[in-house]
Amino acid sequence: MAKSGYDVYLKNCLLPVTPEKIQIKINNSNKTVTLINEGEINILKKAKLTDIEFEAEIPQVKQPYAVYKSGFKGAGYFFDIFEELKTIKKPFQFIVCRRTPAGKKLLNTNIKVSLEDYKITEDAKNGFDFKVKFSLKQWRDYGTKTINIQIAASKPKASAEPQRETNNSPAPAASQTYTVVKGDCLWNIAKKFYGNGSKYTVIYDANRGVIGGNPNLIYPGQVLTIPAA
Question: Is the pLDDT of residue 145 over 80?
Answer without folding.
Answer: no
